[in-house]
Amino acid sequence: MSDILDVVKNRDPQENEFHQAVSEVMESVKPVLEQNPIYRQSKIPQRLVEAERIIIFRVPWMDDQGEIQVNRGFRVEMNSALGPYKGGLRFHPSVNLGILKFLAFEQVFKNALTTLPMGGGKGGSDFDPKGKSDNEVMRFCHGFMSELFRHIGPDTDVPAGDIGVGAREIGYLFGMYKKLRNEFTGVLTGKGLNWGGSLIRPEATGYGSVYFAAEMIATRDDDLKGKTCLVSGAGNVAQFTTEKLIELGAKVVTLSDSSGYIYDESGIDPKKLEFVKMLKNVRRGRIKEYADKYSEAVHTPVDPALDHNPLWDHKAACAFPSATQNEINAKDAQNLVNNGVVLVSEGANMPTEPDGVDIFLQEKLLYGPGKAANAGGVSVSGLEMTQNSMRLGWTREEVDNRLKMIMKSIHQTSLEAAEQYGTPGNYVNGANIAGFVKVVDAMLDQGLV
Ligand code: NDP
Ligand code: 2IT
After folding, report:
1. What was the pLDDT predicted at 99?
2. Residue 426 domain-assigned?
3. 45, 135, 252, 437: most buried by Cβ count inside 10 Å?
4. pTM above 0.90, yes or no
5. What is the CATH number of the domain that holds 265?
């Protein structure tokens, strides 16, 4: 597949994360392309790697000191073969076009796996919500939406949250969309429960990642009960991964943020998790405070000089990377294997570097790649869209059951595709192939658009 990768690299040489995502998918689907010449004849690879539309815009806003600030806003509308563009918004200083293109590309195949009618997109800004007041965040979100509103809509493009975008930001974004369009529609997901949101959407990515892990480990006649688990991140995905793991009787011993990680050998219990939710979602503090409050925990700050992340160097059975891309390198992957880890379920998008992935596959770990394991979030977003269209809301049990069924189906579909193309148990190939075939067959049906 080096030909399409060369095209992508020559066209946008600086977009490393996008190259990484394209390379992985194209490697997996090689046998599919070989067995189905129509895909290459129809230039499917070339069409898939070019976004249908990219919008880049200026977001001027005023900070609390009365100073004018200018950020850059993006929306990558990658592929609409299966439905309206769908995917989150990320607000983080590291955001650039290459990162959003990688996320949008992954989203296309992830959304295809969910069984729901959603295309793929992603957006965001290099705005950093850290240290900003609620008023500053509101002014930024309003400024961001005062351009984005022209390009989205409930049947066109439906954004949601991602890193740095949670319930608070979705509220401000929705408010401005509604004002400018004079329409109350399901244009965003992750909305507040009392104004169109779905039960279980906040929990969905983390719960889904654990449901996927439970499916994987069941193939070896085992379960998660009593397993020691490493979780990274301390945001939305990490919190609800931890919550579900505790509920299933597993022991979570780590959490992290961008300043470091905590290790709590006695395990994070529901009370401690409540503290983390308050700390991160309400007070917006640092994870170090966990170790200040609970003396049994140790906080280790990030050391940029280290060639590995010590979070991944503890005895455990399972790992749930839930912070950000490329947070596990080859050395970390080897440390996980050496420490007895048998299962990795990716709550984050592309958290493992390619040579780390190779180690997991060689060692025959139960390795659930992000586009399968973290698809629960966008799945419940899809269910939120359904409920909005019907103008009614389902119960917690109804949504949770549907989420479980979807994760089970993604697991099954990925296993079957891996088996069919000669790599049984390889969820990377399975998820990439199953998602790819669904999207590209729809593209072929719809002709050259
Ligand atoms: P949050 O903003 O709620 O939390 C992100 C967490 O990751 C924070 O603890 C943050 O630390 C940490 N983090 C972010 N960037 C970095 C970095 N560069 N280095 C180290 N730590 C970092 O985001 P989410 O929990 O929503 O997202 C986490 C991951 O899950 C992302 O990869 C996202 O794409 C993916 N995902 C999210 C879904 C969702 O529904 N929200 C759905 C599917 C995937 P700090 O507090 O210091 O910033
Ligand atoms: O990466 C992801 O799947 C998300 N951030 C969730 C997207 C969504 O539309 O709910």
Report:
1. 98
2. no
3. 252
4. yes
5. 3.40.50.720
